Amino acid sequence: MVIWLDSCASTNDEAMRRATDRSVRAVCATTQTAGRGRLGRSWSSPPDVGLYLSYIAHPRFSAKLGTALPLMAAVAVAETCATLGVRPTVKWPNDLLVNGRKLAGILCEARINAQKWHAVVGIGLNLHTPPEGWPADVPGIALDALIPTVPDPKIVAETLLERLDHWFALTTTAQSLDPVRQAWQTWAPPLGTWMRRDTTRGRFAGLAEDGALRLETDQGILVVHAGDVSILEE
Ligand code: BT5
User: Fold this and answer.
1) Model pTM above 0.90
2) Fewer CB within 10 Å, N or C, the chain?
3) Which of 3, 4, 16, 43 has the most ligand 1 atoms within 8 A of CB, as the residue to mutate?
């Protein structure tokens, strides 16, 4: 079952509250009053312009594959956009960009609940440009700037959930990040693209086995496990 709410603080919280209910697959909302990004940042979630969806990774998904979550989500969103004729670039770990602007963001959160590991994959995908435009600090882009007709959020959610189910099943069967790692790299900037992590510049050298980002710097390979990187050229 997919729960659709008119409004909530964050669909990630609503999904986490229901994480022990095996009948719930995802929670979506028309608007979020406290949509979250990573590292204490916020996700702009005005009514009727975005898809705000939190997918519940049931406990059957092993915690040791946890680093696959953002990769699976990014690939599922990229594939969903591709069915609509839009080809985004994935930016490690969790952004989907078009023309250098952010089309979607992903926030994976995990918690122990009822003695089981639960994870929620929160996805914000911009469908329509906000009527008042993008806030100055939000370099966003929406599907309506890229394609003539944007389907109803429920239709987009259906495709996205089908792609998420696919990647969860494949990763669980393989018990490995390899399939999703390979798929992720097909949506990534070309190997060798310059990226920056804090003050260090390096060339994109693919993903490590656990999904970490590898950058080839003057000092050798830098493996980035958390935080942000910027793409310096596309
Ligand atoms: C993310 O964080 O990109 C994760 C966003 C996850 C949002 C979903 S919506 C459903 C679920 N429920 C939640 O509460 N969250 C998830 P981060 O990488 O930290 O990026 C945040 C930054 O993106 C902000 O500081 C802004 O610069 C920018 N931003 C905020 N809202 C945006 C939007 N709607 N479109 C594009 N960029 C945005």
Assistant:
1) yes
2) N
3) 43
